[in-house]
Amino acid sequence: MPTANLTDDERRRILDELLKQSVGGKLPRGVQARVAREFRCSDASIGRIWHRFRETEANDGLGEWKSRIKQNSGRKKQNRDKIAAKIRAVPIEERKPNRRLAHATGISKYLVQALIREGVLKVHSTRTTPYLTNNNKFRRVEHVLAYIDPTSLMFD
C-alpha cells in the first residue's frame, strides 16, 4: 500500500538515523530495512534518500536530502478573468448545455463545471412547464377521464 510522501523533516530524521548507524560511510546489513520499519516507509525510499545524500556529498561536500517535489506542483490554474471574458463573448443561447459552452469558448467541460462549483458562473434554470393550480389539476384529470372507456376495464 503506498504511503504519503516523506516531509523534509522526516527525511532529515531518517538521514540522521542512517548517519548514526553508518560505519565508514557505509550502511551495515539490515539497517535500511530497520529504519524503514521504524519510519513506516519502504526500503526503497530509505535507499533513495541515502543514495542521493552520498552522491551529492561526494560531488560538492554538502549532502542533499530534501524532497525534490516542488511545493507548487500540479496543473496550474487558468486566469479566471480571461475565461469570464470568453464566456461573455458567447451569446446566451449558446451557453447551455455546458458542453456547448465549453466548445464555444474552447475550454474543457471540466473547467466549466469547476467555474460553476467555485461560483464564477451561476446556474440559472428555467421552468419549462408551469406549476399546475388546483383548478388546472382538476381540469386535467377531467380531460384524462374523458378518454377512459368503462367497457374496456374488464379484468378477469
Account of the protein in words:
This protein has helices at 8-21, 31-39, 43-60, 80-89, 98-105, 109-118, 134-145. The protein is mainly α and 156 residues long. Among the domains are: 8-60; 80-118.
Percentage of helical residues? 40-55%
Tally of helical segments: 7
- Mean pLDDT across every amino acid position: 86
Inertia-based shape: elongated
Estimate what percentage of residues fall within beta strands. Answer: under 5%
The total of beta strands comes to: 0
Instruction: Output the radius of gyration.
Output: 33 Å
Give the helices and strands as they follow along the chain: HHHHHHH
Q: Segments where pLDDT lies below 50 for 5+ residues? A: none
Amino- and carboxy-terminal Cα gap: 63 Å
Q: What class, by secondary structure content?
A: mainly alpha
Give a quick account of the main beta sheet: strands, pairing sense, barrel closure. Answer: none
InterPro entries: DUF7769
Protein name: DUF7769 domain-containing protein
Pfam families: DUF7769 (PF24964)
Domain DUF7769: 6-59
